[in-house]
Amino acid sequence: MSLSLSSYPKRFAILTLLSATRVFFFYKSRRNLSKRLKSLNPISQNPIPKTPRGKIFFISQTGTSKTLAKSLHSLLNLNGFEFDLVDPKEYEPEDLHIESFVVIVASTWENGKPPSNAGFFVDWLTESADNFRVGSLLLSKCKFAIFGVGSGSYGETFNAVGREGDVDEGNLAEVFGKWSKRVVGALSSLGENGGYMGNGIGDGSEDEAVSEGDDDEEYDDEFEENDDESGIVDLEDIAGKGPSRKKGVNDKLINGKSNGGTVNGEKAMATPVIRTSLEK
Ligand SMILES: Cc1cc2nc3c(=O)[nH]c(=O)nc-3n(C[C@H](O)[C@H](O)[C@H](O)COP(=O)(O)O)c2cc1C
């Protein structure tokens, strides 16, 4: 026995056999592990194949909200929902009326104001929303969800831009992760109800995971929908008449004079939009 094992060819053959067996079992265990990990994530197993594109805006000064928005972007794409990650400073708010799905991840900055990358965007929204004729129809075709990032230590201005996350609690990623899953769930149920497929506009049925302006419901259901059908102002008419970053569009007439895109030396916000609505 010892004679035969000590011969080099036989030793070599046994070692080779042992190595091959080890490689085989290692390969099998890796495959089992990856199968188990996949089964732990049922959402990503069945991605919904067809979705209209939505927009995720990040309103961020030092990158926290941007990082969260990026992770949500990956999660939504992984689950088959096509969204663009958008810096609001690169976006013309007058185009909001054509969006079907908007997610905003927004930090609050000094004195309860939004970070500078969204100054124009937020002012535009605020002024338009404050106008009783424009406000209710501004996002009438759009489902939207907002996650706010702020610090409780700022008291009254805590999360003035949007609610939900408190950096002081030390669990921002966890809170955002849970909220993100609820967004995926809301989108999935819209898809199941036929409200998300095709043109991406919900049919307004009660089955949809959307609410209609009730403050309490807004944070139960991730996607808010403005369903006001009163039709006082046609946003199709307003589009292109408001302030714009697109070349030439900002040069509007205010009180009959060209403003060069500014009012009193400052960039015009929603004033022309509101003016248009009031003149109708
Ligand atoms: C100068 C400064 C002012 C802030 N003001 C507020 C505030 O008024 N309300 C609030 O909720 N959080 C406030 N915060 C906290 C920020 O919202 C928090 O740090 C957040 O993570 C920043 O997100 P960002 O990196 O996306 O800009 C402030 C932070 C700084 C540094």
UniProtKB/TrEMBL annotation:
Pfam families: Flavodoxin_1
PROSITE patterns linked to this entry: FLAVODOXIN_LIKE (PS50902)
Coiled-coil boundaries: none
Annotated ranges, domain Flavodoxin-like: 54-224
Region Disordered, annotated ranges: 196-280
Gene3D superfamilies given in the database record: 3.40.50.360
Acidic residues bias spans: 204-237
UniProt protein name: Flavodoxin-like domain-containing protein
